[in-house]
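Researcher: Last one for today. Full complex below.
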Amino acid sequence: MSLALKELRRRPGRFGVATVILTLIAILLMFLGGLLDGLTAGNTGAIRAQQADLIVYSATSQDSLVRSRIDPPERRQVEQVKGVDSVSELGSVQLGARIEGKGPRDLVPVVLFGYESASTGLPTTPTKPGEAWADDSLESEGVETGDILKIGPERSPVKVIGFVNDTRYTGQSTLWASMETWRKVQNENRSDARVAPGVSQALVVQAASGANANDLAISVDRATNDQTSSLTEDEAISALPGVESQQRVFNQIIGLTVLIAIIVVALFFALITVERIGLYGVLKALGARSGSLFAGVLLQAVIVTLIASVIGAIAALAMAAVIPPGSIPFIATGSRIAGSAFFLLLAAVIGCAFSLRRVLKVDPAQAMGAGQ
Amino acid sequence: MTETSPENDGSGATGTAAQANTPALEMEGVRKVYEVADEEVVALDHAELIVGSNEIIALVGPSGSGKTTLCSIAGGILSPTEGKVIVGGNDISGYSAKQLTEFRRDSVGFVFQTVNLIPFLTARENLLVVDEISGRDRKRANKRADQLLEELGLADRAGNLPSQLSGGQKQRVAIGRSLMNEPSLVLFDEPTSALDTKLGDQMVELIREEMKSRGTAAIIVTHDERITGYADRTVHITDGRLEA
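Model: Here's the assembly. Have a good evening.
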């Protein structure tokens, strides 16, 4: 198919418009994807950091941390379920934080978590009361190790002892402290929702090796007489407010963008094919098969799309590098870029298919004389 | 002309072996009818034509007389409605579209009226285009292309694009292209229509030289009576009927 390649190389101008439009589409696609990934990461970091097999909420909580309460007896029931390896507590409270050196009304919304055991997603629990790890998104707010944040209306002091990565929750920065610190901050600032010692919002369950998380969820809820609602980590992430609808909306926009790519490729290569009808007539008269002519069209579309994807990928990576942390939730992941490129290539192939009939229909007879 | 053609088309694939005495083209009772808006238009009727293995025939007739149709049928571009077409000993009248494509690729040469070189390929690449498409032996094709360019006086133009060539040079490239597959029959569609008288004469002379030196048969479609002087025989066609 060096004929198609030679045309690409010697008449690049011919494919310029298509390349530019497809490049813009590639950038749009990768930007939308990166934005979705960034938003999702910012919403779900805290749950993902647990690296849990199950998150156990109370039955009446509608799978929301704020509404959920787990009492010590329930915890003991869960611990005794066969297949449960370890159980630890989780609590959260959403408050405004005052940062040193900033004005008294300049509040940063944070979620302070209390947690019990370190998963690989989180360092060991701060032992001293009033100490916490901070999500590194707070760094862009000017927070440094050793700073003391004043949390909530009661200005409960929390000292930052270091930073953790990718632990944001519902788009907000997080602080990670012991369960004791959480209860203290919760009770000081939320007199309407005090928690007694030993009470948590949810349980983080690690399953024993070999145990199926879905089956385990059923056994846990049965053991607590359906006083709990156990979700796998993926289910817990989907249950977070807004996550699912956000993904649905973005995926619809991404789907529409791919559709536009299909239309662009279809129109452009249909146009090129129409322009080439004379040429195809000659080539067919000389003994070229329709299949190899169409393969040439396909090859050109794939190469143009690859070029567009590479430029799009570079743009996405550049964007990820340039955007200051904390401003736009954008991340460029390899899988997102590869996925976008794959969908674009698919669009190119589908778009080209619309020209197949036209290539097949070209009559070699038109190469001879006036043709009939 | 005597009837020496093999009576069957079965496994006569070894046509090249006995090419010396096999006519390049035999047409028996060939009829071609087009359907135009529910009306039958007879483009070619009861055409009988035998072209010897190294004969050059001028096919002369006014436009619309059916000469292009005859050429297209002889070259396997069109299938006849009725009749028998035997090219180089192979009966192609019953060929499928796929078989015809292969036949055109391997057995006939075409020089089209509007030259039709591929604009983004050099003269040399235009000769190689068919081999590139069919994936034939590259080395041999390259050698043959160089040799043909040399013969046609285009050696120093091998790397030029068609836009950098004169009308006569383009025509010569097209002749070179038609000879790449070592055909037994070459079909020329109005080869001089785009050239002035002097160049036209040179061109036909060149065609004769190239055909005779190879022992290749040719049909030259034209309405230029001057060409007939270079042909071995002139066949006239009017309203789809041949007159020797």
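Chain B touches chain A at residues 34, 43, 63, 67-69, 71-72, 75, 77-78, 98, 101-106, 110, 112-113, 116, 118, 120-121, 125, 129-130, 132-134, 177, 181, 189-190, 221 (CB under 8 Å). The mean pLDDT of chain B is 84.
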